[in-house]
Structure formats: structure tokens, C-alpha cells
Amino acid sequence: MNSTSTVTHLEDYDTEQPFQATVVSSERITSEESGIEVRELTLDVQKPDFEFQLGQSVGVLAPGNADFGQKHHFRLYSVADLPERGAAGLPRIKIVVRRTSYIDKYSGEEYPGVASNYLCNLTPGDRITMSGPYGLAFEVPEEMDANLILIGTSTGIAPFRAFVKHLYRNVPEWKGTITLFYGARSGLELLYMNDKNDDFAQYYDDETFEAFKALSPRPAWAAPIDWEGALAQRGEKLWALLQQPHTYVYVAGLEKMRAELDKAFREIAGSDEKWERRKAELIAGRRWVEVLY
Length: 293
Hints:
By secondary structure, this protein is of the alpha/beta class. It is about 20% helix and about 30% strand.
């Protein structure tokens, strides 16, 4: 996970004070028709004094490969909802996990992702080892009339789900606008914006909230998400927002997004120079924040 201004590697995170969490539920939140399996895990943290702030991440220490002397396999996950207390009074959080695999670049063999498959295979009552919380990636702006442009792909939508819910539920003085762009290969892979789980629908009637989908034009061929098309359709409005001093852009998802978004925004700006200057100003003002993995 990294940001534009600072790159933090997984080995840099402190895992010296681990704690246990119990799985309350594990629900698949992508449809069975989708070839992508994403699960939402509800966890009761077995640490009564666990304090979590909106926007933080937690670490999961999955069992490592003993053959290589690896005790734990560490991965970070954004918390996907507002923190609450479970039935036993313990802190309760939710994380979103996508079952993944990778291709060995030397042998060409496919292997299951260690942490994602470990988590996706858990059942209620199982216990896992965790660490954290870490960082505050996306903060509520000081200006209550700010414009927020949220751009996410895959499980990168998880922190935005909690963030938007917090703004509309817990910040009554919030008067700003929220423009959400969510990218996926197909509509079947849109988390929290599908027929089964459409959390964002509760905000559609609010005049300050807009949500747009960016899909791949040829999902069966693994074509890239059409960020250029999705953003260009609202290019004039987006560029006007980016000129305002109270506009913040928060980006979460896959690392390849950075180049894809830069290309799309260059088109909107009209030139490389104009976009590079504007983005540098946003970064310098801490109004462009990325959490990529």
C-alpha cells in the first residue's frame, strides 16, 4: 500500500503487538455469476480497548510457509464499515477480501494467494491473528463545503463505503459534494453497487451525491477499465471542480490505476503540462491522496 508522497512497504509496519479476532460472518458480496469472489468478513476483535478511527487499516497475519521459516504472511486490509460494538461488547469491524491467485513468472504455474485464500476459507467461530490499526488515509476535510472526488477499483471501494456513510450519518454540518467513480471489469464485480448489495443507493436521492460506474468495454477479454470514457463524459464538470481550492481527490485500488487516471485527466485538462501542474498543486496541498496496492 502506498501514497503519492510516501511509499510504505509491508515490512515497515509494526506487528509486534498482535491480537486475536473471531469471525462472526463471511458473506460473498459478488454474485455467483461473477468469476471474481469477494467476501465481506465481520470480525469481533478480542481486545476490548481496541480503538479504531475512520480510514484506518488493519493487518492480518495469516499462517506462513513453515518450509521457508515464515511464521506469518502479513497483509493490510481497509476497514469497510463504521466501527461498532458486537453483542459481547467487543469492537466489531468488517474487511473486504478478494480471493486471488498469481502466476509464477519463472515457472508459469498458478498459485493461490496466501492471505486472501486463508481469509476467504474462514467460517464463523474461527480465530485469526491481527495487528494495527494503521494510518489515516482519507480524512474528512476541514472545509465542510468541500468537493470530494472518490475514485476506486475492486476492494478499493471498501474505505469509501465507510467514509461516505460516516459523512452522511455522523457529520451533520457536512455541506460538500461527493462524486464517486467506481471501476470494475463488469457490473457483476461492482461491490456495494450491485443487485445484492447496493449500499450507495441510500445516498442517490441526496443532491450532494453522485456515483458513476467505469467498466471494461470487453470484460471477457480482460480489457482495462474505461477510465477515459467514464471521466471524459463528466470532463468539463470535473475540471471545474479541480480548479476550486476546496476540492479533494481520494484514490484507492490497484496500482495500475495511477497511469490510467493520469492519462484520462490529461485528456480532460487538454495537455500534459496543464494536468501535471494541477496534480502537483493538489499533492502539495494534500488534496490528492492515493492508497494503492
